[in-house]
Amino acid sequence: MAIRPRRSVLYMPGSNQRALEKARGLPVDTLIFDLEDSVAPEAKLQARQQVVDCIAEGGYGKRELVVRVNGLDSDWGEEDLKTIAHSGANAICLSKLESAVEVEEAIRILDSVNTPTELDLWLMAETAHGVLNINELATAHPRVSVIMMGTSDLAKELRIRHSRDRVGLLHALSQCVMAARANNLDIIDGVFIDLNDQAGFRAHCEQGAALGFDGKSVIHPKQLEIANEVFSPSEDELSRARQIFTAWQQAEENGQGVVLVDGKLVERLHVDEAIRHYKIAETIQELENS
What we know:
By secondary structure, the chain is an alpha/beta fold. The protein has 2 domains: 8-230, Phosphoenolpyruvate-binding domains (TIM Barrel), CATH 3.20.20; 235-288. The protein has helices at residues 17-22, 44-57, 77-84, 100-112, 128-132, 134-138, 151-158, 170-182, 198-211, 224-230, 235-253, 268-288, and strands spanning 8-13, 30-34, 64-68, 91-94, 120-125, 144-149, 186-189, 215-218, 259-261, 264-266. The strands form 2 sheets. It has an 8-stranded parallel beta barrel with strand order 1-2-3-4-5-6-7-8, surrounded by 4 helices. Strands 9-10 form a two-stranded antiparallel sheet. Strand 9 (259-261) and strand 10 form a beta hairpin. The longest helix is centred in the C-terminal third of the chain and has 21 residues, at 268-288. It is globular and about 65 Å long.
């Protein structure tokens, strides 16, 4: 799987034409054009067409474009899938999934319209059943590339109060991270709903990074700077990566079996991590210059 930064993943209501246009200039890695929760029933068809038109018009640079469609049990879900399949989006996001059968039904619909092979599926984990079956969902089809946490819906279902430490969600968050890593998928942490609490948002980002998430779901552009900062490789990490990679190369050239950096043993896993930091930093730079 190609390495790409997903530090910030911004939800944009598909019914808000001005927001869709403004997104072209935002410092964000991934945009999710939403046709589901943020769109009123009477605006669903208009939102779908607006999203398709905006993607076709382009201007989003190297930002990743994802469309969250309505559920297949709704009046709009199947047509959402068929339409977005050929829109030029990078991925389709499926919400409130609880079993592989639901993923398979989405795949059947996508196959029926000869969907391009490069279109990925993102799966939202936002119910108790979804979290319990997360490994089944993660392995449901090769198109699956990312797990998205729907922490607001999950907290409601689990009857958990919102708190800065998210203690009631820690088991679910870690279980989903485990499934993502076991299946070589990326995973994005849930939203932080208090736009006036930047310190709280930073705390959630730092906790998410510590738990192993690749990025943060964002609901407003004012949250982008912190998410991008926290989920980027730090200068210290990049400096350490350079040391490790250089030492490893020199050891290989000299036929040495043991590599030490600052007195600490370096193994292949540390080199792989260093290479990942380099590649993410490079793609971040490319994205920022686009």
